[in-house]
Amino acid sequence: MNHHTLTKDDWHQRAAALSFPDRPFIDGEFVAGDGEPIAAVNPATGKTLVHVQSCSPENIDQAVRVARDTYERGVWRTMPLLQKKNVLLRLAALLNEHSHELALLETMDMGKPISDTLLFDLPETIRCFTWYAEALDKLYDNIAPTDAHALATITREPLGVVAAVVPWNYPLMMASWKVAPALAMGNSVLLKPAEQSSLTALRLAELATEAGIPPGVFNVTPGTGPVAGKALGLHPDVDCLSFTGSTQTGKYFMQYSGQSNLKQVWLECGGKSPHIIFDDCPDLDRAALAAATGIFNNQGEVCIAGSRLYVQSSIYDAFMEKLDQLAHTMHPGDPLDPTSMMGAMVDEQHMQRVLDFIQVGLDDGAQLRTGGGQVRADTGGYYIQPTIFEGVEPHHVLMREEVFGPVLNATRFETEDEALTLANDSPYGLGAGLWTQNLARAHRVAGQLRVGLVWVNCYFDGDITVPFGGVRQSGFGRDKSLHALDKYSSLKTTWIRLD
Predict the structure, then answer these.
(1) Catalytic residue among 269, 303, 402, 416
(2) What's the DSSP call for residue 407?
(3) Catalytic residue, candidates 106, 195, 268, 402
(4) Does domain 274-461 match CATH 3.40.309.10?
(5) Is the pLDDT reported for residue 479 higher than 70?
(6) Average pLDDT value for the chain
(7) Topology of domain 19-268+474-493, per CATH?
(8) pTM
(9) Residue 189: phi, psi to the nearest 5?
């Protein structure tokens, strides 16, 4: 039975038979965690799936020592490139073989619809491992231009021990964006999943070992941010820490680096991305669908979500009517129902945080156009309606802070200059979208938006071949593409005198 014929009942039956990994994975095996157990709660029901043993600072130290030992011994670092490539390709094949299981784990752990995990998250994860496997034996070093008396080589080398700290909104895909290039470069890796979503990371480690990655080269250390995350950030034998998550946590990791060994820190942090619809938009229906998907997809739990919508006044009313209609079709449903377009918020605490933002908007007089409340409370799960506010002032908290939920703020604008001023009025700089059929305007506006990614006449589009990341308080460094390899390697110059 393929995924196209599986029904809600089929997925529920498979979920009932699912087993859940519940311990750290260090040195090629599951081990006991000494930290406080973490309840893995199903956001769709509020019920605990399993208690995951978490890592104490001592567990983290053990994992780092194992990773350092494997790196120094060269069991992965010096493995022939073709062999290393085939191991990563085997891992991608195993991910494909276990895609239904992994999609279920992701959906039950995080609350997103099964159609999203199976048809987007898993294919993107598999492609990521495949792409970096294929890339690793196609990287060439350089010879610098010198006088005849010298030969100067520029070679790319792995860093050593890499810690990857990933968020809960795309647990497996975000892990692949960091783990795959770090492994491809020959590093030993520790992955700390978010405490809300450890299950697929632990299963990934098991499959990686089955694929042939040597014990100790890839370890998964579940735990809380203040304990396991901080221990990784402060550890003197971690050479690089790559993080995706909130801006505040990213700042902590910068501090930890300064307090310890000046480890490299790469950050992909929060966003408050503008989505601009000019009156010469080539297709209002397509733009409205992109705007709805851009904020309501994944329950709005997306760093790149287009949460600030700017629509030119002459088309504002017509556009918002189309957006209203789409919002009403995207109400949350059972995440194991393949027809559900939205699922549950990741946990009760986060649902309440988003509802608090909505209440602040209401208390301050923001005009609520659509949604605004919790739904499906009788299930025990954590669901919020697609929500649209209008006329929110640029200085308001709804416009300044990342809500990380299905909450959109729509604003009219008159001129291109006004749209640019509004769009750039943010401490963040992750992404932006704009719609116009004027090529000169598209090029001009894209060049003036202070962000790391710009979409023209689309939103969310991308591929593993192009870099992903932001500027300002959205962080620095890039995931995806060959540019990601820069984060997990260093350049060495060797000057050889020939005379």
Answers:
(1) 303
(2) E
(3) 268
(4) yes
(5) yes
(6) 97
(7) Aldehyde Dehydrogenase; Chain A, domain 1 (3.40.605)
(8) 0.97
(9) -130, 140
